[in-house]
Design a protein that fits this description.
Layout lengths: L4 E5 L3 H13 L3 E5 L2 H10 L4 E4 L8 H9 L9 E5 L4 H9 L4 E4 L4 H11 L1
Parallel strand pairs: 1-2, 1-3, 3-4, 4-5
Length: about 120
């Protein structure tokens, strides 16, 4: 099944705008959240088919939020792709251990992101 509905979670308005624009131009429906509480509200409102997750955010970070979402039976089937400036191999491994399906470092390359989304769908 092709992925169409994406939830982008990032505390940077610039990143939210960039990723939303990129995804919409490629035919996706996008919702955004700037923190963990907002992310859970969006999940409840309309379950996405993919989550793009930042790591560095105030309050609950992306690793913690990925773990919470991927371990919740209601949302465990939603693939999560980490999109973060944390570019160390240990960060990538930790993100995957928390439940992420893939990991992209910022600045996000649009072609790379589209290829990863297509591979998941």
């Amino acid at each position: 099944m092709a992925i169409k509905k994406v939830l982008v979670i990032d505390d940077s308005k610039t990143e939210l705008m960039y990723l939303t624009d990129l995804l919409v131009k490629n035919g996706f429906t996008v919702k955004t959240a700037e923190n963990a509480e907002e992310a859970f509200r969006r999940l409840i409102e309309d379950k996405p088919e993919l989550i793009l997750m930042d790591v560095v955010m105030p309050g609950q970070n992306g690793f913690q939020l990925t773990r919470a979402i991927s371990r919740d039976p209601l949302y465990a089937d939603i693939p999560i792709v980490m999109c973060t400036s944390k570019n160390q191999e240990t960060d990538r491994v930790w993100g995957m251990r928390q439940g992420a399906r893939d990991y992209i470092t910022k600045p996000v390359n649009g072609e790379e992101l589209m290829a990863k989304i297509k591979a998941l769908g």
